[in-house]
Amino acid sequence: MFLKSLLSLLFGLPKNSAIIVYQGGLGNQLFQYLLGRELQKVFKKNVIYYDIRKYYKKNHKSDIQNLFQLKLRKYNIDKSNFLVKFILLSPLFLRFNKFVFQKLKIKIFSNYFFDNNNKPIILENFKNNDNLLIFFGTWHNLINQYIYSKNIKNLKFKNINLPKNYNFQKKFISLHVRRGDYCDPKTSNFHGNLNLNYYLSAIEFLRNKFGNIPVLLFSDDTEWISKNLSYLIKNSIVISSLKSSPEIDFYIMSKANYFILSNSTFAWLSAFLSEKKDKFVVLPKYWFKNEKINSYHIYKDWKYEVI
To answer: What is the radius of gyration, based on Cα positions, of the chain?
Structure first.
C-alpha cells in the first residue's frame, strides 16, 4: 500500500489517475485513446497520455490529433524527476516489465498493466481502485468491454481534402495491405505477412455476395501493391499514403461499405469507425503469425467473415 502511494507522489499526480502510454501509428494511438476515454467517462479516472514515440527507431509522425477534433492531455515529466523519466516510464523499463509479465506471469509493479492477447484485463476491476494506474500496450482486445467508447459518434473527423480521382460517395471495398515495418524480419516473425491468396479470396467472396463493387487499395507500400496486386483486380484503384498521408487514407477507408482487413489496427479501426448500415468485414484467419484470430479481435456488432 505504501509503495502504491509512493508512486503517486513520485509521478506528482493525484489519486485516481491513469497514465496511458502513447505509442505507435494511428491504429495503436486510437486504441490507446479509446481506453483512456473509457477509463475517464465510465470509471471517472484522471487520464493523461505519455508520448514515447520519439524513443523508437520507427517514429510514427502521424497523429490522431491531426485526424480528429480532439486534444490529448499529455503528461510532462519534471526535468528534475530522473527516476520517473529514465526508469519508471522509460521504454526499456516498460518493455522489460511487459516481457516478464507475458513470459513469466510476474508483475514487478502491481500498478502497471499490459495487454495480453489471450486474456484481457477486466476494466470493471478498476471501478474502486483509486491508485495510480499505468497502461502500456495496444489494448485492441478490450474493445468488446467498452461501454462509452463504442459510441463512435464521439469521434469527429477534421476537415479532410479528398483526392479527386474517385467519387467516395459511391459504395466501395476498402482493401488494406500492411507492409512497412511488417517487412522487418523481427517484426514479421511476430505479426506475419498476409499472402495474395487471402486478398484475392476476400474480393471474390465480397463480390459474390454484394456484386462487382470497386476495390480501393491502400498500403504503406505503393510500389508493392502496384506491382503485385492491383493488376490482378479488375475495377480497382490504388490510393496510397505516399501520395497523400496516413490520416487521409484512414479517413477514406472509414467511408467504405465493405472491408478487407490486414492484420493491422490501422485497418481494423477504419472498419470500426465506419457508420455504413450495410457494413461487412473480412478478416484473416491469423491476426499474428502463430496465433489465430479470436473473439477479442472481432467487434461484437460486426457482420463478418474470416478467410
So the answer is: 20
Distance of CA 252 to the CA centre of its chain: 17
Which residues partner with 19 through β-bridges?
48, 134
Return the number of other C-beta atoms located less than 10 Å from residue 154's C-beta. Answer: 13
Cα 246 from Cα 66, distance rounded (Å): 10
Nearest-angstrom CA–CA distance, 60 and 166: 28
The letter for the amino acid at 293 is I
Cβ atoms within 10 Å, residue 15? 11
Q: State the greatest distance between any 2 C-alpha atoms of the chain, in Å, as a whole number.
A: 65
Looking at this protein, which amino acid is placed at residue 270? S
Task: Tell which residue, 39, 50, 53, has the closest CA to residue 74.
Answer: 50
C-alpha cell at position 213? 463493387
Percent of the chain beyond pLDDT 70? 91
Q: Which residue has the cell 467517462?
A: 41
CA dihedral 73, 78, 84, 90 (to 10 degrees): 70
In tens, the pLDDT along 117-176 reads 778 899 999 998 889 999 999 999 999 999 987 776 678 899 887 777 677 778 999 999
Three-state secondary structure string covering the chain: CHHHHHHHHHHCCCCCEEEEEECCCHHHHHHHHHHHHHHHHCCCCEEEEEECHHHCCCCCCCCHHHCECCCCCECCCCCCCHHHHHHHCCHHHHHHHHHHHHHHCCCCCCCEEECCCCCCCCHHHHCCCCCCEEEECCCHHHHHHCCCCCCHHHCCECCCCCCCCCCCCCCCEEEEECCHHHHCHHHHHHHCCCCHHHHHHHHHHHHHHHCCCCEEEEECCHHHHHHHCHHHCCCEEECCCCCCCHHHHHHHHCCCCEEECCCCHHHHHHHHCCCCCCCEEEECCEEECCEECCHHHCCCCCCEEEC
Predicted confidence at residue 241, as pLDDT, reads 54
φ/ψ of 296, rounded to 5, equals -70, -20
